[in-house]
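so my prof wants the structure for this chain in the tokens format not the other one, which i didnt know existed until like an hour ago. anyway here's the sequence
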Amino acid sequence: VELVESGGGSVQAGGSLTLSCAASVYVACMGWFRQAPGKERESVALYSYTAGITYADSVKGRFVVSKDSTKNTLFLQMNSLKPDDTAMYYCAAHRLWCPDSLGDYNYWGQGTQVTVSS
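here's what i got, hopefully its the right format
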């Protein structure tokens, strides 16, 4: 499975960005994760074929995940961005389910940088 991300960039606080992640084949779980300098990688939003969508508390009400199943592409619409959202954003996937542990995700994209200035 190959994951190709796009859509990162720089934006001022309060702005919006949309990330996309295209998977080469169908997978049951796709998710967005992020890692800021000096911090651990954390889950942002998950899309599970069976369990639906979940969001981290820090992004609820601001970020929206959607999927184009015909193209195996996951989108992350990020609104009302804050400087704390600055991080490298990664797409990850698992063929069968959404693991609880980041280490159990089989496939990762190369990452796309999101920078939010105040």
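also thought this was worth mentioning. The radius of gyration is 13 Å.
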